[in-house]
Amino acid sequence: MSAASELQRLLVAACARQLAQQDQANVLEWGDGAGMAHAMRCLGADGRGFAFIADDKTFQAAQRALTDGGAGARELFHVPVGAASERESGFAAHRDYALSPAALGRSFSLIVVAGADRASCVMIGWLLLDDAGVMILRRRADDDAANGAIPRAAAVSRISGPAGADEFVLIAKHAPLPETIAAAVRGSFPSGYQIATSAAPAVAVAQTRPTPMPVRAAQPAASCVFINTYYPAFLEAHYKRHPELLKASYAEQKASLQATCFGDSDFYSAGLQRAGWAADDLIANCSPLQRAWAREAGLDLPDHLDILVEQLKRLRPQVIYLQDLSLATAQVLGRLRPLADLIVGQIASPVPPQAHTVGLDIVFTSFPHFAERFRQSGITSYYQPLAFDPRVLDLPPADGGTHSLTFVGGISPHHPAGTELLTALAAALPIEIYGYGAESLPPDSRVRSRHLGEVWGQDMFGVLRASAITVNRHIAVAETYANNMRLFEATGSGALLITDHKTNLGELFEIGREIVAYRTPEECVALCQYYLGHPDEAAAIARAGQRRTLRDHTYAQRMGDTAEILARHLRLKREAAQMQAIDLGAVSTGHTPIAPGAVTTALTDAWKNESLPQKQRALVARELDAMYKGAAVTPFDVLAKALRPLLTRHPSAPVLEIGCASGYYREVLRYLLGRPIDYTGVDYSPAMINMARDYYPAGTFLVADGAKLPFPDQAFPIVISSCVLLHVPNYQQHISETARVAANVVVVHRTPVCRSRQTHHLRKQGYGVDMVELCYNEGELIGLLGQAGLDVIARHEFHSDPQRDEYGVTYVCGKQGKELY
Amino acid sequence: MAARRFFCTLADRNYLVRGLALIESLRRHEKSDYTLYFVCLDELSRTILQALRLPNVVPIPLHAIEAGDEPLLTTRKDRTAVEYYWTLTPTMIRWIINHHPEIDVLTYLDADLFFYSSSDPVYAELGSKSILIHEHRFTPQLAHMAKESGIFNVGLVSFRRDVDGMTALEWWRDRCLEWCYQRTENGKFGDQMYLDDWPARFRGLVVLQNLGAALAPWNVGQYQIGAEPGKTPTVNGGPVVFFHFHSLVVPRPDVIVVTKHPGFPITTHLLAGCYIPYAETLWAQAMTVKSVLPTFAFGMAESATISPLHTLLVRQSARSIDLGIGPCRDLPLPGGWDARLMTPQAAPQT
User: Each residue of A51-75: pLDDT tens digit?
Assistant: First the structure.
């Protein structure tokens, strides 16, 4: 037995041991059947196994081996590759082989991918994998397609061997299952095999502070310094409580400050480090700390800004991230500009009047409406919600006992609505109120009588972690949007969050199941009364809320997104001149009518031309640049408009784009819709997919023909047919296949149609390459969509020339008989 | 087997008890399989409704309907709560139809409707048509109200999932998104007066004819109400299907102002046949809600101007309370209630 086969057996057995706790474990293998058979022997009578084998002799051998014994029900399927295999490769040849398991109508706890067309099988396997299941991909060293097929959302552990040997990739829906399995058997690996080390430094326990960014030498590829400011009152209290710090070193002072978990502490930098970046924090307004740094650096610099500039000169990060925009004056930005490639800022409160926001490369904001306003001013701005750092849960619990109902937050005469709420709560309920600003209340205020003082950092988390219920409210500047940190601090800490209803709240949490929302103070009081009287229900919602926050709202996740964004903008900046220099020539010209019979394979394969990706990307780069400067880019805006209602209602819905080219809609939709999209892109051009993987390494991209998609029926709630139909004479197959893999909605994006003429074929030059283009009679197109089970429910016309009978339309179609998404 | 019937209604906490009374009336009288989608306009209502786990009732939170519907959310900025709820009516009907492919016909019900017998006559009149609406049927004395409130009342409207039904529904939604306010303006009033030209505008429309359906304070004065203990109340000899308890006010759980408009004629037969069963159900439902949330008092402490012209229903246990309205006579009624009659409004039926 080869070392690789030996390792496969070892991993299958380890997975089976993990799965043995499940009542019924279904095992699937694409391969020679050995993996499934071994898993069944390990699982015993509780399992059920299915193996799909392409090769006839292998199938016969597996059948003979099946009689050798073993427990559980085992089935072998011989699915030969299609007759087309000699002409076609990849999924086209293996469609039945790859898709057959989906027809079993079951999901699987263990999937082994070790046969033909492993890329397609990984994609399909992911859709068939149980939530707590594991997939083992045995990847040939040169099989980049299989790597590209591993979903971005997957938790992955890799076991690599000697050069040229098969790699094993353990894939699961949730961490740390792959790591656990790999670690369990690492002592038994065959010679030369080892767990591949992750690029990201591990920062996992509360007391373990992240490794600061090294200074200058050994500079990693991507680096960022976060510049924070702390509330002066907190700093004063902290140094008063720990006077010895005044004489301590810079490192000791900084560690002490960050250990309090005040504000966002080192949450951002630790999250970015997990994403593989080097990252560090500076606390710009902490005089003792900064003076200690200057002293240790041998500098006599009394001015905070001078010290900060010196720190940055030594660190030389690629990105400077300002957490406090009051620092972002024109003067400060002028001094920081030469020190980094990008200067970005973050804002979650009113924009300080002195902030020179146009001098920033990017502004991140947890206010959706702020992002929109920045964009209208020509500033690149991303909506990004705040988050929670799970290391807080490793802190020792507070001593103050439990609290049935709390509010932790500031009181200010500038927020009368907040005071009105607290007054109503204090009048009706035994609420404990913590935070600053109580002195601004009238002496006879009911809120005063329930106020227990200020709590910061660890103390605040202590209160929240000991609270059964905690109430939240937003300040007026939030308008109709939920954004504050307490959303995540409270849920992450395990309290039931009762918060004010906002239009985007349902995108962050499931209201009623993970959090509770009120629309008026009187409703808030009544909901508190209800949940105080129903503690079991309150606890169940609190648990669900905590699970949601730990799953979707951690700094590690946010910073994973940030890392992608920053890398993208660094590359955009780096490539800007190069992209501008590319001569696009005529993008689309020389349209000449041709008969359908005159469409040659060369014309239909035109988009596989290897010269196309770079030219198209150069055009895309210009459009992206315009988008980031706040300009309208019609195709981008139209698709975002079509998808916005769907992805607002179902933020995590998987989206498939057919004809994804270099994958740029992954970036466009992230930007315009304000959230990372669970996106999969396919294109029939290997060159395009290679480029997509290069630009979006965290994305899921696959070479596939839109007429033969490597996915089970209804695999994606939302499918985009992206400017594809106009290039495919076999459009009926395309429409039918698109409808097949869509569960709810199909968006037919950027389709040229006419109304008074018949559907007609044209020959044209696209980026200098001869290709075919179709213009559809709109009635016929809608009829074809209807025949495929798709009803047009919305249309977005982005081009109209009635005189020439030429229109450009994006259609949103609902699948007949299905819930409209 | 008859097809499952699908109803929907909406209410906030102030109308929750009335909505529960509607649910209870359907439970008693609806013989077919049915589902009632209850759009909860606040989370308190949804929480309580969910806790009650009522059969055939599916709570839908308002935020589910609002999510991603920018045109709807935009209207919230300049409309009062009541105007926004009216704006919402066609949108929620459309949302429910879109999200439940199994629905063929969806019938919207105002939360202050109350059934006394099966909805069979309504569905029989709809037949295979696409839209069903009903007139106010104002008494001659109140006919002038049509100019302010419209010919038709939106208390019950049915739409079929077909081209005609969906065309009308989309048109109605678009109009309500454009304009839906609590005032009469250019032939419009709320979501309601848009229906005035529907018989001419839309195909497949039926105007409900059954006298027992759509009884309301504005039309009941022209009919003979039959009230016999333990039997379905009648209108001109036929069974009452549903009554629309518009303008009823509940200043205390044990006191009901029958209608805040003293101009609406009320008879003792009507009190005994229709109002008392409703009052009994409201009381029972209020107690049910209090079993879940003892402090619940929403919709049961409404401000009310009580004058000698009004008719009150008072629980006998509350006979001693002073309502500040001076001398009046009590008419004992079944179910532990008295009618406190001060005026000629509640006259014996002639």
Answer: 999 999 999 998 888 776 555 688 8
Buried residues in B86-97 as b, exposed as e (16+ CB within 10 A) = bbbbbbbbbbbb
Phi–psi pair at A306, nearest 5 degrees: -60, -40
Query: Residue A489: in which H helix or E strand, if any?
Result: helix A486-493
Whether A519 sits inside 8 A of B295 (CB atoms) is no
Calpha distance A180→A186 (Å, rounded): 10
Q: End-to-end distance of chain A based on CA atoms, in angstroms?
A: 51
**For residues A446 and A450, what is the distance between their CA atoms, to the nearest angstrom?**
7
How far is the C-alpha of A566 from the C-alpha of A575, rounded, in Å? 14
Residues of A in contact with B294 (CB under 8 A): 533
CA torsion angle for A478, A482, A485, A487 (degrees, to 10)? 150
Which chain B residues are closer than 8 Å to A503 by Cβ?
66, 73
Radius of gyration of chain A (CA): 29
In this structure, how many other beta carbons lie within 10 angstroms of the beta carbon of residue B111? Answer: 25
Q: Write down the residue that tokens 């909860």 correspond to.
A: B40
- Residue B103 neighbours by CB distance under 10 Å: 20
Rounded to an integer, what distance in angstroms lies between the CA atom of residue A792 and that of residue A746?
9
What is the distance of C-alpha A787 from the center of its chain?
Answer: 35
CB atoms < 10 A from the CB of A398, how many?
A: 18
Of A503, A518, A534, the CB nearest to B73: A503
Residue A302: count of CB within 10 angstroms of its CB: 10
Q: Which of A693, A632, A636, A622 is nearest to A662 (CA)?
A: A693
User: What order of strands is seen across the sheet that includes strand B131-135?
Assistant: B57-61, B34-40, B5-11, B105-109, B152-160, B131-135, B205-207
Tokens of A709: 């998609």
- Omega into B327 within 30° of 0, i.e. cis? no
ipTM over 0.90: yes
Interface probe, candidates A429, A515, A523, chain B, greatest B C-beta count within 10 A: A523
The CA distance from A641 to B46, in Å, is 31
The pTM of the full predicted model, rounded to 2 decimals, is 0.86
Please answer yes or no on whether A819 and B64 come within 8 Å at the CB atom. Answer: no
From the CA of A427, how many Å to the nearest CA of chain B? Answer: 14
Task: Express each pLDDT in B99-153 by its tens digit.
Answer: 999 999 999 999 999 999 999 999 999 999 999 999 999 999 999 999 989 999 9
Query: Which residue in B251, B219, B214, B263 sits closest to B325, CA to CA?
Result: B251
